[in-house]
Amino acid sequence: MGMEGIPGVFVEEHSGEGKLTVSIGPQHPGSGHFRIVVTLDGDVISEAIPDPGFVHRGAEKMSEYRNYIQNIPHLERPVILDSTGILFPYTLAVEDLLGLTDKVPERAKYIRILMAEFNRIISHEYFLAIEGIFLGHSTQFIWSTGDREAFMDLAAALSGARVTFSFLVPGGVRTDTPPGLEERTLKACTYLEQRLKDYRRMLFDNPFMKMRMEGVGVISGSDAVRYGLVGPTARASGVNTDVRRDEAYSLYDTVDFQVPVRKEGDDMARVLVHLDEMEQSCWIIRQALKKMQPGPVKFAMKGQMRGRVGEAYARTEAARGMMSFHIISDGLPEPYRVKIDTPSNRNLAIMPKLFKGLHLADLPVTFQSLDYWPVEADR
Amino acid sequence: MNEDEVAASLTSSLQPLGLSASKSAVHRIKVPGTAEKLLDAARALDSSGLNYLHTITATDMPKTNEFELSYWVGSLEDGKKEHVVQYVFRIPKASPSVPSIMGVWPAAYYHEREEWEFLGITFTGNPDMKRLWLPEDWDEIPPLLKDYKLRRWVAEERERHGLVVRGD
Fold first, then answer.
1. Residues A144 and A240 reside in one and the same domain
2. ipTM score for this prediction
3. What chain A residue is nearest to B103 in terms of C-alpha separation?
């Protein structure tokens, strides 16, 4: 197929102005399918227009045709790397509609915390690996991909799956913890905490990395709020937001943790916030393991699940930031309308402003530092 | 502050517009309004510390021939950050037009484009009412309208490609 079959520009020269419009993507070495059309003045970006939508599947429409249980594996698909992240708000919203909010057992809530934090570490390690690729730092890619396995094994021990866990269900979690999980988890946390020190020493206290990332792609705190940014991207710009602490859903108020916030707002700050968060996740996991008491892990429901007539809005802190579900029900087994608000979708808003003025060579690293996942944004 | 206290303070700042806020669920506050008052209400909410737009949900309500729009706004201030405010109103499907709130919250840019694309609601003031998620050559009705039947589409596609699915 020739270029004429694909809408939009590929390379276009602006005669007399010395500017060049280049289409970058939709195929990327690490991030998924996404295109940015940049206009270059020399090697400085004078305009950047993001063009998402290459992996839009209509997840919201499709979920209107599935019942609340069938929607669990279906809704994981947009965010396979952080499947607990997307199922957590969905489960909370459905529990609200089904009147189960007060019936979720305490042990199930702690197991949900465990799984959410495992998933946060898995997603953050993946982020670091891909950031390594975009920096041309293959050691970081190999290290992070390898260390991620420890937590994927733990999540697999809990749920039976390595990537799409389908572990959270309305009323609790699917299964109880297998024997020996606590020991394995503590071992993995100790290992990760040591590795995070190695990451910092080898990778981020490194003058070359500092040259590449410090002061590049700065987002101011007021922009982060006005453009509605979430998650590590917002926290790296000094915005102190974390739904786990602010709304304290699912017993997050019984564990003690800090919300890492940095002021710089540059690529380096965004990467370091991810490192800090993994440390905090280990700390949360340790506490959750201590607080867990034996007991049931699921409220057993009978009959067909029908939501009350009404609506529910639930939000949680997924790995990439605040994830929320607005579900409207008309009393049928299927939801009437599902609105998924994903962190990548929200962080998209800053891209035209952020990329303007960057050198083209800094674009991949800055793009990846937003932890933008096209499938999650497109849904 | 609990939901009722936040709702009371919002009601006092929304009073000049004739709107009021009330608790709708745990950590949720509802402000029923109208499309005409949207911009003024958004400015009033913004100056009360609700400056963190989460999302916009638009829903097709074919029974009453209306669209329902919910604007979910949060805050970063202590005492308010655990709550989310929903500004909700309905517009007739015959004239699906709403003023854009990009001037108050630039975060609305992609959310408004999305609702335009999925439901055909025009946001006056948003400069780019054009394709975002759907294919460039999409020529059917907006897909989140209830008239757009997914199963019919699947059956038509199967027929077009000559697919036979076991169990049908």
1. yes
2. 0.88
3. A226
